[in-house]
Specification:
elongated; three-stranded antiparallel β-sheet; 13 strands; alpha+beta
């Protein structure tokens, strides 16, 4: 019997080739978008699911009352370690790292890489898979380094590189520090806890004993606000249990300005990435788009079936006359819908493979080839195909099959349980969805246009940023960069050039507390700042509202500071009155 159902289904599809092609293509497009978006959502929801004890893992976030006093994703350098040391019954383990970028070398190979300078606890704390080396003690000593398999392949052309030496360029006098590789990790997924600052890290070196910074690592400095900190709580302990201990530690070790402005939050690692508002909005938007596109494809399928229902009604009537049961008709129509949807699913796999690189670029995510999907993803795909096929076949299966025999033989479509009315309703719904999708696309397009075209306060056109690697901010390094700047200014194709620690679109890693001289207010104003020379404003096209952007050559000009409008207002000045006023530098962070 099932064989006959398939035969009839194939005959019907081949007899109505145009309608079949339209249905198949519409369903294939709907399934393609749904499958792609579904894979993206599953990847986001599965973030960090591979980590050990992920239910007890938390990220220490900072909520600053004073705007721009620090980053929300970073915390005080010593906080994570102090929580573990002073409250071991609450905190089981901790991990901190400082993300940097510099040159990593192996023999005659040199690459600009993201380097994580941090504690040596992370391999065991998160249960990361170790391909080579000791998983219980990945770092043998403070001169050991742990790298990923991709990094090993990149530096040495093979994965088993235990005992090999790599060199990390430091920021001190053009020096390098050598490390012996003690473990090779399996590649870490792109959306893991180690990508909180937006980059992939393939080299991990210890904080203790590192000579990367001229003044040493800031992990033990309570004025260091830019350390990424994570902790693992003991079983049965919740973030609420740490509220008082955190307050006690801040009161014990930090200055009053930090205590008044900082509120520590613990974000669960398990849902941190997918739980953020931006990711949730993206997931919700994409889900609605996928549902709308799939719904339009299904409605289109039903409308076409209504359009050719007169032919199907005659077929139904004749089969009933010859003793066909309604149950058999229902199975027949569901079989046809499932067969057509299955063909569309096969085509959608081809569409997915063609569009996979484009979606990966748009969503900044990794999309595996279809044949490399997990078993759960395969099962969900099969379930999607079955549900779409079943829903698409509901109308002919349960409505047309219930038609009166006499009217059905005559092909009277009006008798088909309100066929025309259903078609009108579905057409209205289909066009409404299309209009909503179109309006949403225009809205999103305007938002994107606003983001790329709004006035940022500086001119990005024809602007090129040259990064100095290795970064060397001592006197010798600054002199070398000034010589490069002078050489660039001699070129006819260069209009302006400037030497600065940061560019305008990035939050400076340094900040200072300022007070107007003679002010009766003893509460300093926290201001993020950067070091720049006199050509900074001209090079970046900054608008100087009052005064001048330094009046002497060079950077770090003694006794001079340039404020933006917000800083001047926070200090109690207007744009004009701020010029030549004196401010006191209370402290740096």
């Amino acid at each position: 019997m099932l064989k006959n159902y398939f035969k009839i289904a194939i005959r019907h599809l081949t007899r109505h080739k145009l309608f079949s092609v339209i249905n198949i293509l519409c369903l294939a497009i709907g399934i393609t978008f749904s499958m792609t978006i579904g894979i993206y959502i599953l990847n986001q929801e599965a973030v960090n699911s591979h980590l050990k004890n992920v239910e007890n893992q938390y990220i220490i976030k900072s909520k600053w009352k004073t705007k721009d006093m620090g980053l929300d994703i970073t915390t005080l350098g010593p906080l994570a370690k102090t929580l573990k040391t002073e409250y071991p019954t609450l905190v089981a383990d901790y991990y901190r790292f400082n993300p940097v970028t510099n040159v990593v070398s192996a023999s005659d190979k040199h690459f600009k890489e993201n380097i994580s300078i941090g504690d040596t606890t992370f391999v065991n704390m998160y249960g990361l898979p170790v391909l080579y080396g000791n998983s219980r003690q990945a770092f043998e000593n403070n001169n050991s380094a742990v790298i990923t398999e991709s990094m090993a392949q990149k530096l040495f052309g093979k994965k088993d590189v235990i005992g090999k030496t790599i060199s990390v360029q430091t920021t001190v006098n053009n020096e390098t520090q050598d490390y012996s590789i003690s473990a090779v990790l399996k590649d870490i997924p792109y959306n893991s806890v180690f990508n909180l600052v937006g980059d992939d890290y393939g080299v991990f070196v210890p904080s203790l004993g590192n000579r990367y910074y001229q003044n040493g690592d800031g992990a033990d400095n309570w004025n260091q606000l830019f350390e990424v900190g994570m902790i693992e709580l003991q079983k049965g302990i919740s973030p609420k249990d740490l509220e008082n201990p955190v307050k006690q530690i801040l009161a014990k070790y930090t200055p009053e300005s930090i205590q008044k402005n900082l509120e520590v939050e613990l974000a669960p690692v398990k849902t941190y990435y997918s739980g953020s508002s931006s990711v949730q909005k993206m997931i919700a938007t994409l889900s609605m788009v996928a549902i709308f596109i799939l719904l339009m494809a299904v409605i289109n399928f039903i409308n076409i079936n209504i359009g050719i229902s007169s032919y199907r009604l005659k077929e139904i009537g004749l089969r009933k006359v010859f003793g066909g049961a309604r149950r058999q008709l229902v199975i027949q129509f569901i079989t046809e819908a499932l067969l057509l949807t299955f063909i569309a699913a096969i085509i959608s796999i081809g569409f997915y493979e063609l569009l996979r690189p484009a979606f990966a670029n748009i969503l900044n995510a990794t999309f595996l080839p279809f044949w490399e999907l997990s078993l759960n993803q395969f099962l969900l795909f099969a379930l999607l195909v079955f549900v779409v096929g079943f829903i698409s076949g509901i109308y002919p299966a349960f409505i047309l099959s219930a038609s009166n025999v006499l009217h059905a033989v005559k092909g009277k479509i009006d008798s088909a349980k309100g066929g025309f009315m259903l078609r009108k309703v579905l057409l209205v719904v289909q066009f409404t969805i299309a209009v909503v999708v179109f309006i949403s696309a225009i809205y999103v397009s305007k938002q994107v246009s606003f983001v790329f075209n709004k006035d940022l306060g500086y001119n990005k056109e024809q602007l090129m940023v040259i990064n100095a690697l290795p970064k060397q901010w001592d006197s010798a390094g600054v002199k070398r960069m000034e010589n490069i700047k002078s050489a660039l200014q001699q070129l006819s194709v260069v209009k302006d050039a400037s030497l600065s620690f940061e560019v305008p679109d990035r939050k400076p890693p340094n900040a200072i507390d300022l007070l107007p001289v003679g002010s009766t207010n003893n509460q300093p104003v926290f201001i993020a700042g950067t070091v720049a020379d006199k050509d900074y404003a001209a090079t970046f096209g900054l608008h100087v509202l009052s005064g001048s952007f330094f009046t002497e050559q060079g950077a770090n000009i003694p006794g001079q500071v340039v404020l933006n409008e917000s800083a001047a207002k926070a200090l109690g000045f207007t744009n004009q009155s701020a010029v030549n006023k004196q401010v006191k530098w209370v402290s740096a962070r």
